[in-house]
TrEMBL record, chains A, B, C, D:
Cofactor info, note text: Reduced FMN (FMNH(2)).
Enzyme class (EC, first level): lyase
Entry superkingdom: Bacteria
Residues that coordinate or bind NADP(+): 48, 54
Lineage per the UniProt record: Bacteria, Pseudomonadati, Pseudomonadota, Alphaproteobacteria, Sphingomonadales
Cofactor or coenzyme needed: FMNH2
Gene Ontology CC annotations of this record: cytosol
Gene Ontology terms for molecular function: chorismate synthase activity; FMN binding
Record EC number: 4.2.3.5
Family the entry assigns: Belongs to the chorismate synthase family.
Keyword Plastid appears in the UniProt entry: no
Cited Pfam families: Chorismate_synt
Gene: aroC
Name listed for the protein in its UniProt record: Chorismate synthase
Self-association state and partner proteins as the record states: Homotetramer.
Length: 329, 329, 329, 329
């Protein structure tokens, strides 16, 4: 089982609460001999870090990663790579214990599952956990140097026109409200043959990985839901003798296995659940009260979703590369 | 690893090619003492069976399941339940070995991965494999008697108006073309607390399960991609003191854990890849030729997707129930 | 979890009761392109088959294996290989339901765990299940052609002198009693570097594999318990510049990783639990009565242990080879 | 896969090199609501700690454990429990990079596997890693309060007479040599029904767990190798109507499932490989030279094996309890 672990041969395990002393992860199964230092990982963490603009959470976390094991003289040794980030700006007072369940947040479901929870900042449900996914993804990228992974926000609040985003974000922030977003991630350079049929399909692994990101509510590969609206003759990606395809409706995956085309994943992020607009809710004793979140939160959590989607895609691809090499290498 | 297995405590392993002597599965981890016989499983297989209408493949398979182990005097014993279905109508001649890669199908990617493949009927990539998912799902339902799972096609060829479906299907069939579809599956009765945070989120497991179904290209939970177009205040599911929610934008899952509301999953199926409309392609030696599929195929594979989506949802929920009982029971 | 599965990348799942219609297995993760047919597997099954001498169970099972999937034109395709053997000589009458728990057998513990069991012939606890391990092991050998695996009984009833075994076996059989045995298995040709440190040590995997064989009560690697009686200077395997070791106290494994020397495993098998000598016991309702087993059983189960030990060693090595190639290849 | 992880529902992952900044672990799957603080874990670490007598390594490590996550107000929350211990007395100078491979140690096999290694103190192969097993085992004990686990050294240098141990240890130490030992661990209070048939047998899990401890070369359950020298009539554990057994040759496990009797495991530890007696060896370039280890090492590593064996037994039992509850609860 893998409650807090992800992957098989290349395996990430994360730990830590948003408001504990630190968060961290262990990357197990990384091949030996790869060049790795803190700087490489930090570069990706900095892209995800909060406090960098008015549209993301004002929480100030330097998020300095420290590699504690698995690297010797600048190279991976094949042994587990432990990384930690200290939590330096954890204001627990923002999270009183008698607060109502925040609708859309994990509070209620956690209490239902565990009978108790760490109320400070969402505990493991905090988006802060995703920092360690980004750290793990940075290591994963070293395993797949042939692959280039890039992502972009392609829609905010239902609007695909980038020029209007600043205005609608300003409006939502002013209203204490939040907006959803759609992130698209493209991985080029993946050779044909990664993934596996049936229950380890590459697209299934990507879907599970991306739906497991906080606030994700939908995942599609290639044309995705759009493909359900095409005819078979429109959706077919014709092949030419030079090995190229004439289109990429499939998003680079057929029958669960990569085709050599660009892998295209889109993830729908719901609007941030923590908003200042009051929402009717209850507290742990069932008393009705409005939930009004005063903590520091992003008006559009999807904006910061890109680096996390990239990290999950990198983790999946690194794992699949090793698995393919193991079975068919 | 789990190329051909699905689940942890409740685990399905399937085997068999479309055109071999039989297909089969092993269900491992089923709790003891549950009433089970062939009839129960057959009931669900009959719902998925081809040859039942003009809109699904005319292949005639009686699909009689036989339980070979794990049941004694009508009850499960806790040991592995093996089931098989003989392949009685496998016409290999429909699949010549020098055929071009069928665009959108797994042919090319399989060759790229394995260097060889069983060309008869798609091998493991055949939708026939999903019969064993349905068989496994039938057993899974016994583990979660408190849950009701139902599904419906909600869109065909981009059209949500059911009254027009027959006409557009007739048209596509006549043209040798195919249509995509969207299937919605709803599971009611799931108590709050199933699932787990971070990498074993219930929605992540459902997304992985459903994206792993043949021809699936998109998965959403609750409002899904629609949630990305709502404001936080619109998307919030208010809670009342009687423990009820006033809406279900979340689709029954918060923070990866069930809330007690109905779980809502939607799956986008691409149009059947095997069509009579010629599509430019190549054969294994790289020679250009049009792919024209003459085998027996569904004009809209999504129509038969419902029972498979239900099965995958049942498999996920049975597994999560046992896991929850293990960790928190 | 893996109640009825063994291995990671190369994975065996078995099913079937001793007295059901058949037993079977699924081998998942076998690399493509390996030559495989029924004959190869049958060869190993024949070595294990009962009814071949007076010292093994007189049960007459032809044990004809049938490969149902995963092979096309004589070669593995990379997809799951299903195999079955029909149970043709299952005399359930030998196992009355009101029988006492057979001491040393799994009867009591099964009832305690599952609340019910299939009383016919021990169900999954029957040594018959090991036929499928042998079948899986036969496929595993194809993955590791560089390795030669051989085994021998080295002790029966505490006696290492082979010339006396026939006499003590005759004596035990005549008395309705049984004898234990020790089997030694040697794998040569394993290159250095297979296995992994910490929790996936090659010796740990071998120990788990062999202790999981029916009736096994002890496992040792290299000098094993004898090493606990040596000084460090006596136990050290000196190395020479030609890459050879001057001794092999370690049994071919250091720090959980193969050294390139022969891998040496010894397994202690207890005497067959099913004996004609009466042993005080109880039935399921707690009533005291003597257990006297009349079914067909081996006077020394260890004699047939060799092919099963070899199979488990082959399964472990095939899996470790693929894992090593995946991580370090 | 689980190179650095152990267990399924209750899962320990460890990281860290002997001479890096710290070692640590993550315990995943611990049920919520259990009382836990640093003091509890420290108590078990102190029993294992080096530097406490002349017969164990003089390395001075305070080994102060710090819990970094998964505990809130003194109780486990069900989320991952991260623990670390700083390495404060790591003298790398003891481990020159041009040293010969230490015979019996993991040096050579590591180089063969990974192509490079951290030469300081054995890296992951160092017995220091076992501190985190003890920490994990301390948490595991909380999951199984009904079970009492105790261990004792029962043999040193082949001698079972405790009164002679000090003398033979003094002698070995003076000679720069080392001695092997046998540790026996007994777990009482385990109810009948834990474990599972076939590949998840309780004894198989214990054997894998214990053979994975550094320097372990043999494992036996109950009478173990001794059972191979008994007759079936001698080895049978008669049962009485009060549910008690008249003997415990089986060591508390039948058919892979606990019987309710005391579980008895014995582990053979080879003599410490690092000795001052010169042993012919080679360095990484193949040059012949004597290996003479000057670092700080235990003259009898088995003496400190007891707490580690107990920890592994606790980890196995906690996992099996949760698994049993999941499948049969």
């Amino acid at each position: 089982m893998s409650i807090n672990s992800f992957g098989h041969l290349f395996r990430l395990t994360t730990w830590g609460e948003s408001h504990g002393p630190a968060i961290g992860c262990v990357v197990d199964g990384c091949p030996p001999g790869l060049e790795l230092d803190d700087t490489w990982v930090q570069r990706f963490l900095d892209l995800r870090r909060p406090g960098t603009s008015k549209n993301v959470s004002p929480r100030q976390e330097p998020d300095r990663v420290q590699i504690l094991s698995g690297v010797y003289e600048g190279r991976t040794t094949g042994t587990p790579i432990a990384m930690t980030i200290e939590n330096v700006d954890a204001r627990s007072a923002d999270y009183p214990i008698d607060a109502p369940y925040r609708p859309g947040h994990a509070d209620f479901a956690y209490d239902a599952k565990y009978g108790l929870r760490d109320p400070r900042g969402g505990g493991r449900a905090s988006a802060r956990e995703t920092a360690m996914r980004v750290a793990g993804g940075a290591v994963a990228r070293l395993v797949i140097p042939e692959v280039e992974i890039a992502s972009a926000v392609v829609e905010i609040g239902g609007d695909a026109d980038e020029s209007r985003w600043e205005a609608i974000l300003d409006e939502a922030r002013a209203a204490g409200d939040s907006l959803g977003a759609i992130v698209e991630c493209i991985a080029t350079g993946v050779p044909s043959g990664w993934g596996a049929p049936v229950y380890a399909k590459l697209d299934a692994k990507l879907a599970g990985a991306c739906m497991g990101i906080n606030a994700a509510k939908g995942v599609e590969i290639g044309d995705g839901f759009g493909a359900a609206r095409l005819k078979g003759s429109e959706n077919a990606d014709a092949m030419r003798s030079d090995g190229r395809f004439e289109s990429n409706h499939a998003g680079g995956i057929s029958g669960g296995i990569s085709t050599g085309q660009a892998i295209v994943v889109r993830v729908a992020f719901k609007p941030t659940s923590s908003i200042r607009v009051p929402v009717p809710s209850i507290d742990a004793s069932g008393r009705e009260m409005d939930a009004v979140t005063k903590g520091r939160h992003d008006p559009c959590v999807g904006i910061r979703g890109g680096p996390v989607v990239e990290a999950m895609v990198a983790l999946v691809l690194a794992d699949q590369k090793l698995l393919h090499r193991g079975q068919c290498g």
